[in-house]
Amino acid sequence: MTYKITALPGDGIGPEIIQGSLEILEILSNKFNFDVEIETKDFGGIAIDKHGDPLPKDTLESCKNSDAILLGAVGGPNWTDPKNRPEHGLLGIRKALKLFANIRPTIVTESTAHLSPLKESIVKDTDFIIVRELTGGLYFGEPKYFDENQAVDTLTYTVDEITRIAHVAFQLAEKRNKKVTSVDKENVLSSSKLWRATLDNVSKSYPDVELNHLLVDACSMHLITNPKQFDVIVTENLFGDILSDEASVIPGSLGLSPSASFGESGPSLYEPIHGSAPDIAGQNKANPSGMLLSLAMCLRESLNQPECAQHLEDIVFSTINEGITTKDLGGNKSTSEVFETIKKSI
Ligand SMILES: NC(=O)c1ccc[n+]([C@@H]2O[C@H](COP(=O)([O-])OP(=O)(O)OC[C@H]3O[C@@H](n4cnc5c(N)ncnc54)[C@H](O)[C@@H]3O)[C@@H](O)[C@H]2O)c1
Ligand SMILES: CC(C)[C@H](C(=O)O)[C@@H](O)C(=O)O
Ligand SMILES: [Mg+2]
Predict the structure, then answer these.
(1) Is the Cβ atom of 269 under 6 angstroms away from ligand 1?
(2) Which catalysed reactions does the entry list for this protein (predicted)?
(3) Alpha helices in the chain (DSSP H)
(4) d(CA 92, CA 85)
(5) Above 0.90 for ipTM, yes or no?
(6) How many of the other CB atoms lie within 10 Å of CB of 24?
(7) Which residue, 257, 290, 310, sits at the end of a domain?
């Protein structure tokens, strides 16, 4: 069986972290005996420059015909036209492929706790997953417009949209520590009132799973004072975006955090949660771990290679534990030095 992968390097540090990751994928496929066919496509700012469109038809077609998509990052100071931004390509692909469930794990083991800027005793043994709704909420609600005098964004959620993401969260929790924390702003927002009521309803089908509700402002505090209390956090699009960047501080760096986006069918998309990091782009300084851990999620979920995924995750963490890290984690290695070390370890 040959797996088809579409690679979307994108902008800024995107190409720097994708290139080495694809080389590692080739090495892993030889070692673990499976075949991959990789098609690399223009996406984001580079696609605006070359084709006038952040998500060209040809790129979307390749994604639709693949088994999985690996994405670096998009955006940057070169693309400021509010009507044609690299980020529109990202929202466009999520919507076109109906990738409504975005999974963002945070794990800190005994051996990685020292990397956190927070106290080791607080972060040690943290293991939770943020389930972020990805195709609704303020990102997509209509009307949405701006003129010189006014700007409007609309926060809409339907019961169906909330129900399907709630099932994802409960099903995950059933396989884990059986605890769902739903995060909303029920004291103010109508959409959050519907969110909370729907979560209560869906929870009736999962009697073994405990459901708690937290307001998003309090959750942002709990996240960094007592992250061990969480198992599965489920929340709407914008809250999930913000809380997951905050959560990346717990293991140590935004450069460490991976993600996977799933629809009900079709290819899934794997990308680190960070952006194109314009401040370090082109300098060989980017931490490739978030991209590599996203590749591991891809190997496990889309390519049916759990042992290969585990091998890659083990090597990413043992490399970090040996002190071979980029500056964001306190080390002095370049992106390419980290990639070379990981290749040798494989
Ligand atoms: N999925 C995506 O493609 C994605 C995600 C987030 C932001 N963005 C876009 O990226 C651009 C820059 O956004 P931003 O600066 O707010 O966020 P960012 O995530 O790009 O960077 C925030 C900070 O984290 C650092 N950082 C990020 N990734 C790192 C890595 N792998 N290694 C080491 N340090 C890392 C950066 O250097 C920067 O200081 C914007 O255009 C934004 O829209 C894209
Ligand atoms: C770039 C931006 C549109 C995107 C988002 O907000 O979803 C990013 O921040 C992310 O977390 O994937
Ligand atoms: Mg984000």
Answers:
(1) no
(2) (2R,3S)-3-isopropylmalate + NAD(+) = 4-methyl-2-oxopentanoate + CO2 + NADH
(3) 14-32, 45-51, 57-64, 86-96, 120-123, 159-175, 190-203, 216-225, 237-247, 289-301, 306-321, 335-345
(4) 11
(5) yes
(6) 21
(7) 257
- Based on the fold, state whether residues 130 and 54 are members of the same structural domain: no
Whether 185 is a known active-site residue: answer: yes
Q: Which domain holds residue 208?
A: 102-257
**Annotated catalytic residue, options 185, 206, 270, 328:** 185
Structural domain total, the chain:
2
pTM equals 0.98
The CA 244 to ligand 3 mean position distance, Å, reads 7
Residue 238 alpha carbon to ligand 2 centre in Å: 9
